Amino acid sequence: MIRLFTQPAVGVAAFCLMLAPLSAMRAVGQDAAVPTMSLLPEMWRYRTDPDKVGEKERWFAPGWKGTPWQWTSTHGFWPRYEGDGWYALDQVIPPATGGEMWLIFGAVDENYTLWINGDYIADNLDKGTSMWDKSAAVNITGRYRQGASNHLVVRVRNTRGAGGIWKPSALVRYGSTSAETARREPAAPELSRDDCIERAVAEARRQNGERDPVFVTGFAPSTQHIFLEDRPFAIDVAREGRLLAVRGEKEALQLVILANVHDLTNVEVSVSALAGDHETIPASAVTVNPVGFVKIDYETSSPFPDETPYLGWWPDPLLENFAFDVDRGNTQPVCISVRIPQTLAAGVYTGTITVRPGNAPARELALAVDVADVDLPTTWHFRNLLCWDDGYGPMVYGDRWTEQLRDKFIEFQLERRLNVGGLSGSTQKRVTVDDMVAYVKRGQNAVLAYQFHGEQRMRDGAGKPLTELPKSSNDTLPGPGPVKLRQWAPKLQAAGCYDRAFVYGWDERGEDYYWDIRMAAELLARDYPGLPLLMAGVDNSCGTASTLNGLTNIIYCPAMRQWDADAVHKAQAQGTEVWWYDIHWTIEQHLIRSRLIPWQTYKVGADGFLIWVMNWWHAENKPLSGTQVRIPEWNARGPIASSSGMYIYPGRDGPLSSLRLENFCDGIEDYDLLATAEALLGRSGADAAVADKLRDALYLEDEFIRDAVSYSTDPALLTDRRRVLIEALAAAAESRVMR
To answer: What is the Cα–Cα distance from 717 to 703, expressed in whole angstroms?
Structure first.
């Protein structure tokens, strides 16, 4: 454990998980095993050094850093700037008292050089760019004035993208010195769950003055898994949760309840209306969902990084609000989301979260939502198809499956900017063209008009090439050929949504089908000009290096893990549309990946995202009762990997969302804001300063997202990118670029 002798505002438990583990924490001796930690202030003085003259001009020398030095946060990246930046802080450092004092940087992007009181101490310039997201520790024992103010100066050298000191820093004292610890490079502990509980309780005790709090409350990002038991957790033990949002969008955080002294029973969580200076966000715009847990009891593998190989209860389903129990030592997350009214005035809106156990005193916490003067566009920009399968509804609900119940699931998708459609025969036969036209009026931007069989051949029984398009097995209308498509096409044209339509076929077929695909594409172009054929997993060269080259009505859709950037960009330069798809989107992956998929789509330039099914339920699965957070009866074994294809759950009276799906849909809104920023940047006559802000917002550095499998799992970095994006859009609104 770590004893705390000072505590700034940053939550201790959250910092302990962000901080890279220190092998020095395991130093020999009782005192060395219990180090003391002091978090350094968030705000330091800062200035840029584009000409790299700071060292020559001795910027590290003691003395007040006035203009051009400015205050800045060390809990997030500086805006895109490639060069040197200098940070300065005057800080009282306690005596080492016979032990060792270490200065720990949570993360510095990319390299640091440290001076204390004008004296050079250490640097990691020899590490190149490899340390940007890792902690660094410097033994400063004997190199500072003990118990007095010391002048700390850090030069950060950054060669690409965003940079800076971007995670909290701390002083850590170890109680005894040994040759072993003096030789040791800090390298990494494994935080236990007990450590996390102890820190959370200590912080609650400090804040509330309770000697032994019955329960602890804190907050966590919506992009972070909070496990019920066994696993470590990171929460900000604070009296207030905060969100940044724009008009029209939904943003969420997680309230976390830790039962400390005894089990909690019948815990009720409610949130009041949020009041601003002149307007109010009604309580009806706030949704409270206790997080449910499903059992993952076997290991699977996927091409994407898993968070942990843990087998046990994983958080995912979002349950309707009810009074739940929390066993002693368990951590129960509750997702709190706020839908911002479209016409709301910008400003800060505050309300009250009430946690009311049946066997403990109630507690009130604050919720503050900072609403920016920015609008989520009403036009959907993120093209997607998370396929809905109509066949699973009657299988799970039985006689209770009605048109009214199905409508709830369809409405659920449209509310989240999810295009309605599916590759299953049941969905193909159920959805009508009138349905599709109605969905387009709600915003739908991708219309699956027809589906050919995956193994369709384009020769007749005698081996002669077909001269007409074949009929799909999902087309039940009488007559030869694609009767359904012949009926749909003119109606889609009349409704003005033909340009959003496509047909699908030849799923994941190899070169032996390329002749058939070419024949079908040519017939499709002849009979239905402008209607493209989308194929998933066919030709990773996207027609640039295969016999499919030259077809102008194909939408290629390679798997995310097989994305060939050079081939895609070449194809797109020729006017070819390229989506990407995934079949390995599982619970065990870092939750933040769900939010980042739309960001990744924007970064690589994919034109859309496809997933083959969103409600792959088992026959033995039944609607969730919503009366307990553990759901032992739910079979989470996916068709490919654990929980893949399961992003929406059947509730007692309708759809229940999941942490993965809600994060993904929040990412859709992020994508639509990115698209808005890009459109504004493209307008002529834009203010130069605003244009710079928009460019910074649209530049997604590799440290944040590189590609489908390489991305940061740090929620703080996503929060920072959203802040930069929203501030740029607000600046554009203020300068009237939008008008």
So the answer is: 9
Q: Cα angle at 173 between 171 and 177, to 5 degrees? A: 140
Q: Cα–Cα–Cα angle for 93, 206, 336, nearest 5°?
A: 115
Has this prediction a pTM greater than 0.90? no
C-beta separation of 95 from 147 below 8 A = yes
Q: What is the chain's Cα-based Rg? A: 28
Buried b / exposed e over 226-261, threshold 16 CB at 10 Å, is bbbeebbbbbbbbeebebebbbbbbbbbbbbbbbbe
What pLDDT, in 10s, does the model give residues 27-41? 333 334 456 778 898
User: Following DSSP, what letter does each residue of 218-232 receive, concatenated?
Assistant: EEEETTS---SSSS-
pLDDT of 373 over the 80 cut: yes
Whose tokens are 């898993």? That residue is: 306
- Contact (CB, 8 A) for 165 and 44: yes
> For residue 693, what are the CA distances in angstroms to 44, 162, 667, 677, 725?
23, 13, 21, 10, 8
Query: Please, are residues 533 and 520 in contact by the beta-carbon 8 Å criterion?
Result: yes
Give the DSSP H/E element, type plus range, for residue 14. helix 12-18
Asked if 246 and 372 touch (Cβ cutoff 8 Å), the reply is: yes
In angstroms, the CA 546 to CA 542 distance is 8
Cis peptide before 251 (omega within 30 of 0): no
From residue 368, give the alpha-carbon distance in Å to each of 237, 244, 286, 352, 689.
Answer: 15, 9, 12, 9, 30
For residues 693 and 546, give the distance between their C-alpha atoms in angstroms, rounded to a whole number: 42
Burial category of 3 from C-beta neighbours within 10 Å (exposed 0-12, middle 13-18, buried 19 and up) = exposed
- CA pair distance 268, 495, nearest whole angstrom: 48
Query: Three-class SS of residue 315?
Result: strand
The mean pLDDT value of the chain amounts to: 89
Q: Where residue 466 falls among pLDDT bands split at 50, 70, 90?
A: very high
Average pLDDT of span 98-127:
90
β-pairing verdict for 83-93 and 100-109: unpaired
The bridge status of strand 250-259 relative to strand 70-73 is unpaired
Q: 170 forms bridges with which residues in the sheet?
A: 39, 104
Amino acid at 51: D
Helix H or strand E encompassing 725: helix 715-734
Sign of torsion over alpha carbons 246, 247, 249, 250: positive
Instruction: Kindly state the average pLDDT of the residues 299-328.
Output: 92
Q: Six-digit token pair at 273?
A: 């209306």
CB proximity list for 470: less than 8 A, separation 6 or greater? 452, 453, 456, 458, 481, 482, 520
* Spatial distance between the Cα atoms of 13 and 11, rounded to a whole number of angstroms: 6
How far apart, in whole angstroms, are the C-alpha atoms of residue 222 and residue 328? Answer: 23
Q: Is the pLDDT of residue 686 over 50?
A: yes
**Cβ atoms of residues 218 and 363 within 8 Å:** no
How far, CA to CA in Å, does 544 sit from each of 268, 503, 564, 572, 650?
A: 58, 21, 11, 10, 43
Q: Which residues contact 312 (CB under 8 A, 6 or more apart)?
A: 227, 229, 230, 231, 295, 296
CB atoms within 10 A of CB 638: 20
